[in-house]
Design a protein that fits this description.
By secondary structure, the protein is of the alpha/beta class. The protein has six helices and ten strands; from the N terminus they run ββαβαααββαβαββββ. Helix 1 runs parallel beside helix 4.
Length: 187
């Protein structure tokens, strides 16, 4: 069975975005990009909520073509363009897009079918609403939490409506030069 792996930046007090959706507090640099990129290459499917998918579609398909593209932009753009995408969205229901599966109804059943299908890992970048939906049904297998050394006080929480108590096992930690700490858990 394929695993669903969440990659998420989170504040020390558990938020993935500010109250206004702002993410200007997230620290990313080449060290984090390289580390995450090595892991991303294990996935052949990306899963998003509609908001994150729209952001990704607005940037990554052509990001690697820019004359000023960074190493990360080139690598991630190439990966993004070849992987299958799954988007949890009621507003996109009925739409068809190349290499994209829209899941609007029976989320738990459809995601279970996707996990049973041939392929490697399914990775989620951001997409807190999609994560909340999958958490509710116990469909997430691993969390890669990039804990940023900042307290937001309020915002969009990482864990919300998780369904039932879920015990996690810590597999790895890594401290980056910036002070961001990776916590890698499995369910």
């Amino acid at each position: 069975m394929r695993k669903i792996v969440v990659f998420m930046h989170v504040s020390l007090d558990g938020f993935v975005a500010g109250s206004d959706g702002g993410m200007d507090w997230i620290h990313v640099d080449d060290e984090i990009f390289d580390y995450a990129g090595d892991r991303t290459n294990h996935a052949d499917t990306a899963l998003y909520g509609r908001v994150t998918f729209d952001m990704m579609e607005g940037y990554w398909p052509t990001a690697g073509n820019s004359p000023t593209a960074s190493k990360h932009d080139i690598e991630h753009s190439s990966w993004y363009n070849k992987v299958s995408k799954v988007v949890l969205s009621k507003s996109l229901k009925g739409q068809t897009r190349k290499n994209v599966r829209i899941v609007s109804d029976n989320v738990d059943q459809q995601i279970k079918e996707i996990k049973q299908a041939p392929g490697s890992e399914i990775i989620i970048f951001g997409s807190p609403s999609a994560c909340h939906s999958l958490m509710k049904h116990g469909l997430i297998d691993e969390y890669w939490l990039f804990v940023n050394p900042v307290l937001l006080g309020e915002g969009i929480p990482l864990f919300k409506n998780i369904g039932s108590r879920t015990s996690l096992k810590l597999l790895k930690t890594k401290q980056f030069t910036s002070g961001v700490v990776l916590l890698h858990y499995t369910t």
